[in-house]
Amino acid sequence: MKELISVIIPSYNAAAYVGEAIDSVLAQAYDNIELILVDDGSTDHTAEVARQYADSLRYIYQENGGIGAARNTGVRASSGNLLAFLDADDIWVANKLVLQLAAFARQPELDVVYGHARQFYSPEVSEEFKNQKGYAKEVMPATLSTAMLIKRDSFLRVGYYQEGDWIVDQQWYLESQEAGVHQLVLDDILYLRRIHENNHSIQYADQKKTAQFELAKRALQLKRAGKKS
């Protein structure tokens, strides 16, 4: 019997992109999927987009609480033994889940499987924005939620996402390291990361830098503690 995978898409004012995200989940080569779209208080036409997929997903609306709160809502509403997350402006490749499930089959002791991301500029982005921002690499290793497939028990052992935090993914990843999860980062590209002017990381760049500095200190402390033990 195929494992049920719960896929959670948090969405806040991403109506322009979320249809592509949903389509990429429905196009997966693996078909035992429970898809949950959590609308985090959007004021655009996200709900209208969701209605077009009414037979394929569960739609949940909540007051705006941030991406961590939206993901947590999705986890609590889900029932799969495996959890996966997709940001509303990103796109999975069609064999993402198949590749990750194969890794679990090869190494049953794993808690979580990540992969790589290919970054791309959204079609509406101006040349001025591209020249001003740019990105470090077209392809990057991604220990991020959108690249993750994780066993439910392992996720709950680490704990839910911090709510109201500027760097939700980095915070949770560090906590997963502290919890001693067994992870694998595949060499394969598992998703396409969209770069656009409303990226969370761009909008809150200053807050993100401050939070990353604090996380870096914690990571160093964790590394030093590991060496001593």
Order of helices and strands: EHEHEHEEHEHEEHHEHH
Number of domains: 1
In the CATH scheme, what's the topology name?
Spore Coat Polysaccharide Biosynthesis Protein SpsA, Chain A
Q: pLDDT under 50 segments (min length 5)? A: 202-216
Total helical elements: 9
Say which CATH homologous superfamily is assigned.
Spore Coat Polysaccharide Biosynthesis Protein SpsA, Chain A
Task: Label the overall shape.
Answer: globular
What portion of the residues fall into strands of 2 or more residues? 15-25%
Average residue pLDDT: 88
Structural class by sheet pairing and helices: alpha/beta
What is the straight-line distance between the termini?
42 Å
Helix percentage: 40-55%
What characterizes the major β-sheet?
9 strands, mixed
Q: What is the CATH class name? A: Alpha Beta
Number of strands: 9
CATH architecture: Alpha-Beta Complex
3D architecture notes:
- The protein is α/β, with parallel strands linked by helices.
- The chain has one domain (5-228): Spore Coat Polysaccharide Biosynthesis Protein SpsA, Chain A (Alpha-Beta Complex).
- The protein is 41% helix and 24% strand.
- The chain is built from 9 helices and 9 strands.
- It has helices at residues 15-26, 46-51, 67-77, 96-106, 127-133, 152-158, 168-178, 200-203, 205-228, and strands at 5-11, 33-40, 58-62, 82-85, 91-92, 112-121, 139-142, 149-151, 183-195.
- Strands 1, 2, 3, 4, 5, 6, 7, 8 and 9 form a 9-stranded mixed β-sheet that branches.
- Strand 2, helix 2 and strand 3 form a beta-alpha-beta unit.
- It is globular.
- The model is unreliable at 202-216 (pLDDT under 50).
